[in-house]
Write a structure and sequence with these properties.
184 residues; alpha+beta; Pnp Oxidase, Chain A; 8-stranded antiparallel sheet; 29% strand; globular
Amino acid sequence: MLLPLASAPYTAPTDRDMLPSERREFVRTHRTCVFGYRRRTDGPAMSVVYYIPTDTDELLVATMAGRGKARVIGRDGKVSLCVLDERWPFTYLQVYADATLDDDRDFAVDVMMAVAGRMSGQPLDEEARPAVAAMCERENRLVIRCRPYSTFATPPRHLHQNDQVEQLTHWVSGLVAWDADDPA
């Protein structure tokens, strides 16, 4: 089941690293990410996309079959999604995932309807489904199913005024398994 847009995105703590459960909540309650994948040459490819979380912790990205995102999944199913917090101080959470393609057109329409709701901040009315279905057909849309296996978090650290520079601290984060339990 596709999860609805959260009424309020999770706010990351500013005094410590996020717990594993908080990392999952951060991902479930946000809507945009930088989708990245390896290229054969040059650096990694990256694009900003809306994603849809599911109740089984998949992250769904709709794309056109002819785009690089879809083409690369066939040769390399490893992707990263840098989930973005749209509020300041800016926070992000890197999610590493195994990706597969789903070419079920009806499912692509469901995901595109959900993406439109994320873009506007309100669910799309069912009356829009025929137009979305036509767009999915015309653009040969499919869904990238991303199954997270680990995360890397960066907490928000910000100077609110220049005389705080001596109090600004940073710490190191590390990879945490997606399904890790919180420490006791």
